[in-house]
Fold:
Amino acid sequence: MNSAQNESFIYCTPFLDEVERIKRATNIGMREPSYKGGRKLDDFNDLLMDGENIVVTHSTFANANADTLEFLRQGNYTLILDEVLDILNNYNDVVGDSLNKADIKLLINEGFIEVDDYGKVAWIKESYPTSKYSNVERLARNGNLFYLDDTMLVWQFPAEIFSTFKEVYILTYLFRGSYLKPYLEYHEIGYEMKGIDNSGEKYVLTEYKSDKEDRAKLKELITIYTDPKLEGEYKSFKLSSTWFKKRREKKRKQSNEDIQKLKNSIYNYFRNKAKAKACQIMWTCPKDSRKQLEGKGYKEIRRITAIELNGLSEKEIRRLKNKNSCYVTLNARATNDFGERSVLAYINNFFAQPYMKRYFENKNAKDGTNISVDEDYLALSCMIQWIWRSRIRNGKSIIIYIPSDRMRNFFLKWLDGIM
Structure:
């Protein structure tokens, strides 16, 4: 961007911290959308209309409407997308509503919406008498809303937005293990895989090539711990989100014993085997099971005092607490806050969300082509993204506990260049 002063750019990143970094690192006057009338999208559209270079978060970019698309077509922009976008999201998460199946049935029965055979929602009537369903109307009229499995509304990223740019660069790793890959293929959006070389004075795009040699070097820095007492215990679907959910909901003796056994193993690994200090630890599991597995010595680095929190904004408090936590969310990415953590535990067996798989199954049934989520690579990609938050990103050694046989085997195959 710095060497292309006469071109127009949009840089899209997942996090606000990265917005600030990009503004500091560029010399082309990157502008950031601000809240205008309660929505950043309005200011984003104004900046587009003025032809400004813009750095924006995924969440604001994903709210693109008809005006956004028109301004992008006029602006002759190049898009640089840092990490893949979430191309499907639970409707309630996107707009902050709490609609349920009964709400959708009401809208269908009263003739406000209709759902085709592939789940796409169309708004076919005047607006609802109250504002309760205004977000449903807005997204349905934009063609971005789907009703899947007869139970949940999901928002779809508008595929046509990619065609409004002169060029699009997506900066990511293991693209094969993303939802964006089958999404682009279904919408017949072509792409080329490229590599990056920085052996000269600057970074340049190269032909795509394997990074097996780099992975072989990484392997020398990584120790994978296994618990002899639980060897082979966590096969198949064990430690999946469903497995954890059942053990939260069922109060039978076996469920409690399963969680306690796992918790004991985590504690033994951190305290006795790795002899880790809290400041070294980074661990994860499905967030709703965090409290069940959290234990002494791997909850937080230190106690944060009220004096430290005094005068801080909500954002600053949240950032401080996240950095102080030993627990790091499963979907953590594009952050350096944990770059000194060296003792890791990945307590999860990742599978694609059913509604995501169902979405592509619906698409396949309509299109007749074989497009689907590569679930193994998706699991591997998400785990590597998480591991890469640690100090391994800085070429320093780590030890990691991966109790799931499936996930551990994926990781070993990746290190050996097989996946």
Remarks:
- The longest strand covers residues 8-13.
- The two ends are 33 Å apart (CA to CA).
